[in-house]
Specification:
294 residues; 17 helices; single chain
Length: 294
């Protein structure tokens, strides 16, 4: 376990309790993967500092921070119970808990997801569509009949779901949809992030008979794929503003460095929560700067 993970585990509840199990099931290391885009969407949609702290913005951040993660990863684990039996990341000695099959856990997971539907009463039609798209992709990534995660390319493409919290938040504050280039660039970024994160699972997925973009390409070509989509994301964001292009441009550079170094992808994967948090904070501060200084 990484030093960050060890510090988190020292203060976090034990997974032997229901609360602790749900805490770890929600993947606390990755909470900001959903909540971070909300913060970015809010700061770029707001026209004043007060807009950052609107009740709807705070409520969206809170739901996407924990309950939405519990829902997303809970659904994933419920339908991946057989696959996870072969995954070294799961269970004792791993970094993530293994699904127990407890009916109470299932109920809480779906209740956490249901709470988010209440935002439909405060969103425009466009916002409802974006929220609905998040639900569809969050469920069908793991669940039948579509189960995108078992189809190469579609598994990567469907992970645009991580952009949708930012789209929902932007619409909630601005009352209109964000620029299409921003959505497309963010979508490409999530595709690269998902596929990079699938590299450590290549062997467990192959043993379980699961086909993914990473198992299809193998580690080397998966890194090429990730670098290519991250470069495309940086180009699209750069068309909006050079600052955005530079922020996203760090990812293809990192991919090249990893490919040329002796650092394993399995190890590098666990650095990305920190890298992504810093990148997200940088993007957010850019939005704050625009509001404060134009």
């Amino acid at each position: 376990m990484s030093s960050v993970g060890e510090r988190l585990a020292a203060f976090a509840p034990s997974d032997q309790s229901l609360f602790g199990y749900l805490f770890w099931l929600s993947r606390p290391r990755f909470w900001l993967y959903l909540a971070g885009p909300v913060a970015v969407g809010v700061v770029y949609a707001a026209d004043s500092v007060a807009g950052f702290f609107q009740p709807l913005a705070l409520a969206l951040f809170a739901w996407f921070l924990v309950p939405a993660n519990l829902f997303l990863y809970g659904v994933n684990d419920i339908f991946d119970v057989d696959i996870d039996a072969e995954n070294p990341k799961k269970g004792e000695g791993g970094r993530e808990v293994r699904y127990t099959g407890d009916g109470i856990v299932v109920m809480i997971v779906y209740l956490a997801g249901a709470v988010g539907t209440l935002f439909g009463f405060a969103l425009t039609v466009e916002g409802i569509y974006a929220l609905a798209a998040f639900y569809v992709l969050a469920v069908e990534y793991s669940a039948p009949p579509l189960r995108f995660k078992t189809t190469p390319v579609l598994d990567s493409l469907s992970n645009g779901l991580y952009v949708l919290p930012g789209v929902v938040a932007y619409i909630a504050i601005a009352g209109e949809s964000p620029p299409l280039l921003a959505v497309a660039g963010g979508w490409l970024w999530t595709m690269g992030m998902h596929t990079f994160s699938a590299v450590p699972d290549i062997e467990p997925d192959r043993e379980a008979g699961i086909d993914t973009t990473a198992t299809m390409l193998g580690e080397r070509w998966t890194l090429v794929y990730c670098g290519a989509v991250w470069l495309a994301a940086a180009v699209l964001m750069g068309l909006l503003h050079p600052f955005l292009g530079a922020a996203f441009g760090i990812y293809p550079v990192l991919t090249l460095l990893f490919a040329l170094s002796e650092v394993s992808v399995d190890r590098a994967y666990w650095w990305f929560p920190v890298i992504n948090t810093v990148a997200g904070a940088t993007l957010s501060m850019g939005g704050v700067w625009v509001v404060l200084y134009g």
